[in-house]
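User: Structure please.
Assistant: Input sequence and predicted structure:
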Amino acid sequence: MQVINKMKTITILSGKGGVGKSSITASLAITLAKRRRIICADCDVDASNLALVFGIKEKDFEEYLPISTIQKAVFDLSKCNSCRKCFEECYFDAIELVNDKPKLKEFSCEGCGVCQLVCPVDAIKLVDEKNAKIGYAKTKYGFRIFSAQLDVGASGSGKIVSAVKKKAEALAQDAEIMLVDSSAGVGCPVIASVSGSDYALLVTEPTPSGFSDMKRAIKIVNHFNIPYGIVVNKHDINEEYTKRIEEFAEKNNAQILSKIPYDKAFVKALVNLVPVVVFDKKYEKLFEEIGSKILLRL
């Protein structure tokens, strides 16, 4: 009987924003693509920009279609008897009264359905709301990237992340590895990104906030019992905190995959819409070493 190997998922997260997570994801993707069949999923749906690092713009997407992962309330005012129950029971304060009739406040409805349940005259229905766009594009480096963009003010970022991952898995073809670029923070979209992963790469910087937020992100990774490694970006801007991160890693049996120096080449690479491993060849070996260490853990 033929054994089908499950595609492995590597999630890159940071806790703190602005530490170079997407830049490192892009260069790691190019490095791994030389050795494995990969796909990328940009799960920073509130501000997706991984495609830009590869030089991909919205017009380059093969598919970029609106989707719905939430519902919102719609009122049939011809049925409404002005009982005010929906107004009184709305936990999110999403309903206002205009001439004693309910009206949704913009950007407020979470689609919980309480108003529909309490309405005695069946004047409220929940309808699907298109709250994001999702699609994919082919990079010039030989692999696909899947991406989504949550509409401004829309809710449901965690569900959109799950939709991006499902889309990537459905169209993965023979991919062996999926790289997931998570959003910053430790909220719902990060949890959705990490869930189901086979390995987590924590990117941090040697600052008090970078160190603190990395430890918070590790709590999520540990909750799902996922092996992880750490990359210290801009390690030479604060050797004291770099040492603290190394001591933390040793105490917690975590692997420091690499320490990357501060280098304006990263900024110049982003300005030119190319990963740094392409912009400056001296980083090829460094990212090859990171990739090799990760592959040994999968």
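The radius of gyration is 22 Å.
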